[in-house]
Amino acid sequence: MTLLDASGLRRVYGDSCGDCVELTGDDAGTNQCPECGAVVACADVSLDVEPGKVLGVVGESGSGKSSVAELLALERAADGQASGDVRLDGHDGNLLDADYETRHRLRNGAVGLVHQHVRDGLNLSFTGGGNVAEKLLAAGWRNYGDVRDRVRDLFEETEVPVERMDDPTETYSGGMQRRVQIARALATDPDVVILDEPTTGLDVSVQARVLDMFRRIQREQDVAAVVVSHDLGVVRLLADRTLVMRHGRVVETGLTDRVMEDPHHEYTQTLINSVI
Question: Which of 225, 224, 235 is nearest to 263 (CA)?
Fold first, then answer.
């Protein structure tokens, strides 16, 4: 059974000449069209995620992985043209064609997102609890006591000190802010969570604690996830299957153990050798 299925994902920034996809990609060695200068952030990307499983998307900066994450999370970029097909079990039609109301409902229910940059995912002037409560209110929760109890439970699950719930988020450490983002993403029991570079800006020891926390919750709650990272260690720890991207294209995919231990594509081999 497939929970999330995406095919032909594409995002292009700039005025396309119409030949951008053919003139870019791994074989061309660039994601910028030599004819018109448009950037093909990603193209021809297809993937699927099963219930309770984790898909890793790995690649260097500029490989297109964050653009894929944004499309899967139903985030609309201020500029750029997007196309493709995203389907979520239990929901009708191509979600990329959904209207604002449907996207809003899905983003506050079935799909959770942990942004790469904390300021994109949290209002730092709000309290930590307020950031999570905002997601619940957007999903239709109205009882103050229920919201408060749910936030408290989420703080305990994500290992954020409950006594800090009413403190401004800007007073939290980087690791705590990341945990609040994860709590917010999990607040409405989504079917799938998209994590875009979940360890950005964190010290190595803090990264390990955040990843261990998420792995525990993901397994306990059996939630599906897509983890986007430039860090092979993050993907190796969390993902059942891995997709490797370069210059906006998928160059290799397979079970994570196989990709890490027996990479077929030269670029994947280079990535792995660079961290050994």
Answer: 235
User: How many whole angstroms separate alpha carbon 235 and alpha carbon 44?
Assistant: 22
Shared-domain flag, residues 149 and 203:
no
Contact 60, 267 (CB under 8 A): no
Q: Which of 176, 196, 173, 8 is nearest to 112 (CA)?
A: 196
pLDDT per residue over 42-83, tens digit each?
999 999 999 999 999 999 999 999 999 999 999 887 778 999
Cβ(237)–Cβ(204) below 8 Å: no
Phi-psi region of 151 (alpha: psi -120 to 50; beta: other; left: phi over 0): alpha
Would 116 be classed as within a structural domain?
no
Residue 148 lies in domain? 122-189
Q: What is the domain-level CATH number for residue 62?
A: 3.40.50.300
Share of the chain above pLDDT 70, in %: 99
Q: What's the confidence (pLDDT) of residue 41? A: 97
Q: List phi, psi (to 5°) of 191.
A: -75, -35
- Residue range 97-133, pLDDT digits in tens: 999 999 999 999 999 999 999 999 999 999 999 999 9
Q: Could you give the number of structural domains in the chain?
A: 2
